[in-house]
Structures are given as structure tokens and as C-alpha cells.
Amino acid sequence: MRSIRLFLVASILAALILFNFVAALQGYQSSMREADTLFDNQMLDLARLVSNLDLSNASTRDLRLGNNLAFQIWSESQLLAASHNAPALPLQNFAPGFEYVNFEGYRWRTFTRYEVPLDRWVIVAERTDLRFVLAENVVLQSILPLLLGIPFVGLLIWIIVSHGLRPLQQLSDALRNKGANDLSPILSANSRIELDQVVESINGFIQRLDRVMEREKRFSADAAHELRTPMSALKIQLHNLSEEMDTKHESFQQLQEGVDRMQHLIEQLLSLYRATPEQFINNCETVDLYAITQDQLASSYPYFEVKEQNVELIGSSIEIEADKFALETLISNLLGNANKYTPRDGSIVVSIDDLGDEVCLKVEDNGPGIPEAEKSRVFDRFYRVAGSDGSSRPPGCGLGLTIVSHVADLHQARVEVKDSSFESGSAFCVYFKKKP
Predict the structure, then answer these.
(1) CATH code of the domain in which 330 resides
(2) 182 domain-assigned
(3) What DSSP state is assigned to residue 165?
(4) Could you tell me if 401 and 382 are in contact, meaning their C-beta atoms sit under 8 angstroms apart?
(5) Of 320, 435, 427, which Cα lies nearest the Cα of 375?
(6) What is the chain's Cα-based Rg?
(7) Is 416 helix (H, G, I), strand (E, B) or coil?
(8) Does residue 216 form part of some domain?
(9) How many whole angstroms from its chain centre is CA 364?
(10) How far apart (Å, rounded) are the C-alpha atoms in residues 318 and 418?
């Protein structure tokens, strides 16, 4: 049972029912003992009364005491008197005391008494089923209100348990309502003693998480900013070197590619740092998705031109709520990813579709595509899919699609990887909520 409330209510009700059952059993046994004592005393009185009957009167020899009582008076082996329902044989052996016998289809309790002055035996009998009926009535009258009250007791327990668990619900609501960037401690002024340790543990975890995130952001920002300075110096030295040697030399080309890759990595790290929930909330505005995509295509056109790729933009002006810089970063990375994995003379189609409540930004190409087993991993940090030749990987740092996923999360959008409409290739679809 996963619910604490249901577990507590069911456990308490089960304990109450078990207690009532044991109490009823004890009550039944106690009632039987009391009934036996009461009826045995009545049989003693009945025996005394019968022993004083005037047997000279014929009417006393066949008395009717009711179907539940019987008696016999014997003198040695002669039956002097008996009730109308008594058998002709002795009800019990001639021995003083209480016994049980069966006759007329019932179980009877008997009492035998010897009257010394009169020299005769008096035997009285009473049906035992009446004793059980009395005991059952006593028990039912005491236990029935408890059984009928179980639903009300269950409701009362549910209310009490729910009230007792309310601080836990309040703690859960406080955690659920915390923003993505809210790492402040949880206040425990009104919490119960039992929850103080839980709140303290949660606050300790939040503090450790805050320190880790702050350290990560500081490292990314510092690393990106500090690396920009030596990168600028490398670019200058590389430019000076290009004037002194053949730029088509293999060593120079490798150096150029290494510097460009390092600069790209620095820019990606800085972009990943800047796209935080705090900045997104502060910079969110109404933007034209089509216009921003068009601008990013224009900025990236030189890369497409180098590989002689055919790029097409389909769609019309659609407004969404977004952080402009973060959205530009997302589109730029999708275009860069398509450029890297699409072969020379390949085709890339960028489309913006109005789906009613959503707007879909789709970038598809006719590259080698992504194997089904790797589609779930392309957004992992530093993970890269093999290139069009199936073995080598295009230059990159493996952060572009990670940033795409991060920016999409900031916009409460979702990203899906599908097969391209071309014969081969992949399609990245980002679904944004449409502005009301």
C-alpha cells in the first residue's frame, strides 16, 4: 500500500475490529458463565419448589411448566410425579448435582436433589439453547453498535489522520511550488517535531546543490571569459603567420581548424552558461520566430556556401514568448548541426508550421541520418554521432544539441528527433507554445 494515509486508516480500523472481536468473544464467554450461574440458581429454586409439592393431589402429578422446563419426582424406582413433557425414564442417574442430557430433540441441563426427610429424588431440567440465546442477545446488544459505528469511526480516523499528515502535505506543496532557480531554504516555523529532521535534511541538500550549481556556473563563465583573451592572441598570431607561409600547407590548415574548434567550444560554453532560468525570466519577450530564423540563416549562410548546400526556409511570421538570445542560440546550433552532417551539395529545409496551440520549428537534411539506438543520446553532453562516412566525426565539441535541449526546456518546449522527409537524413523538431 503506497498511501501512508490509507495504510494508517486501514491499520487502525483493523486493530479496532480485532479488538472488538476479542472483546465480543470475551463478552460471550462471560455472558455464558453469568447465564449458567443465573439459570442454575433458578433450577435450585425450582427443585426446592418441586420438592414441596403435595403429591396427594392428583393435579400436581402432571404439571405444565412450559416447553423449556421439566421435572420428575422419584422414590426409589417409582415415578411419583412429573411434568407433561418429561419422559417415563429417569432424566438423570440418581446422583446429586448438575449434568447434561438429551431428550425431545434438545440438549437439557439437569439438577438432581435428594430429599432425605421424604426419601425421594427430585430431578429438574431446563433447555440449554435458551441460555445461548440470552448470551447471544447480550453480546449482540453490546457489539452491534460498535459494528454499525465502524464506518463513522473510519471516517473520523480518516479526518484525524489527514489532519495529522497536513504538515507533510504542506512540505510537499512548498517543494512543488519552488521555482527552478529558487534554492532558498524551506522555512520550518510551523512544522511538527517529526518533520524537523526531514526539513533540515532537505535544506542541507538544497545548500549543497546551490554550491555545486554556483561552482559550475562560475567555472563555465570564468573559463569562457578567460579563454577568450588567449584565443584572440592566437587568432592574431595565426593571421601574422598566414602572411609568412603558405596557407594551403597541411600544418597550417590543421592549426587553423584547431583554433576554430577551440573558439567554437569557448562560445558554446559561454552560451550554455548564459542560458539560465534567471536570465530567461528577465529577458522573455514577444518575438517573431520566422524573422529570427531568417536572420540566423543569413548569418550562417557562409558555412552553407562553402559546402555548396541548398538551404530552404518555409513558413510565415509567427510570434511566441521567448528569450531572443537563447532562441537565436537554439536555431544557430540546429543550423550548425545540419551543416556539419549534411554532405556537400546536400539539401537542408527549415520550416515553421502553425499547429494550432503549438508552433513547430523543424530543421531537416538529407545527411546520413541518426541510428534509432542513438537518437536518445544525441542531446547528451559531448556525445557526437559519426559522420556521413560512418566512421569519422565532423569537427565539434558535442555541446550544440545539449544547448538546444537546455534552451527548449527553458521555453517549456519539447524537442523530437525524427527521420527526414528525404531519402536519408534526420529532422529536429522543436515544439513551442503559441502566444495566446
Answers:
(1) 3.30.565.10
(2) no
(3) T
(4) no
(5) 427
(6) 48
(7) strand
(8) no
(9) 39
(10) 23
Alpha helices in 275-354 (DSSP H): 277-283, 289-306, 324-341
Domain that holds residue 289: 280-433
Whole-number Å distance between alpha carbons of 17 and 154: 11
> Within a 10 A sphere around the Cβ of 3, how many other Cβ atoms?
10
| pLDDT, position 188 | 63
pLDDT tens by residue, 136-173: 776 677 667 777 777 888 888 888 888 777 777 777 77
206-259 pLDDT tens trace = 888 878 777 777 766 666 667 777 777 777 877 777 777 766 677 777 777 777
Q: Directed axis angle between helix 150-164 and helix 4-51, to 10°?
A: 150
Using 50, 70 and 90 to split pLDDT, how confident is the model at 292? very high
The structural domain count of the chain equals 2
CATH of the domain at 60: 3.30.450
- For residues 406 and 361, the answer to whether their CB atoms sit within 8 Å is no
| Tens digits of residue pLDDT in 337-396 | 888 888 888 899 999 998 888 899 999 998 888 888 777 778 776 666 654 444 455 555
Question: Cell 410425579 appears where?
Answer: 81
